[in-house]
Amino acid sequence: QRPRCWYFRNGFGLLALKDGKSLIPDGENRYHAIFPQGQAYFVSASSFGPPLIALGARVKLASTGGTRELPVEQFFVAPQREGEREIALKPNEILTEILVPPAKGVRNATYEIRPDEGVNWPLVTASVALRMEGNRVASARIVMGHVGPTPVQAVKAAAWLKGKQITEAVAEEAGRRAVEGAKPLSQNGYKVQLAQVAVKRALLAAVAK
Fold this sequence. Notes:
By secondary structure, the chain is α+β, with helices and mostly antiparallel strands. The chain has 2 domains: 6-42 and 57-99, no CATH class; 106-208, Enolase-like, domain 1. The chain is 24% helix and 25% strand. The strands form 3 sheets. Strands 6-7-8-9 form a 4-stranded antiparallel β-sheet. Strands 4-3-5 form a 3-stranded antiparallel β-sheet. Helix 5 packs across helix 6 (190-208). The protein is globular.
């Protein structure tokens, strides 16, 4: 699935450039990135990327020249020049396998926030994977989707969880920390709050299993 950015869909390219400048910051941007990367303001359309990254998955890519493996987080890229793509596939290369490591002892969950109860795409998602020691977090991964041109890992928020029990207050604080550094545009500031809530609810869902 290619990005659903309306500038891209209407022929302006992934970076939506006109005269060397992006149209997005001063244009219609209510569904665009709150974690832009350079001139890339579109959001990754992948639903599977965030949970796979949270689980530490890898992809196997094949071409006539052989095969290679990448962590899923390296499969998604933010183009910085027109003509570059949003994934790391080389010409004549295909994705042949997704390799997910054993998840014994890991609690994981994904929470999506959609604009309604229909089939619309999510506004934001959060995927978490928690390795527990008793009722405390030994290690964590938090990955947000639909907030940047690649899935966004909340590394500092995940590290902060180490040694803590996931209570509602802890989950709420982790959500707040996850969106630190967000740079919302003129129309999409609401996504900061949604991402914070999605992280909180994903964490609570993971430990409720």
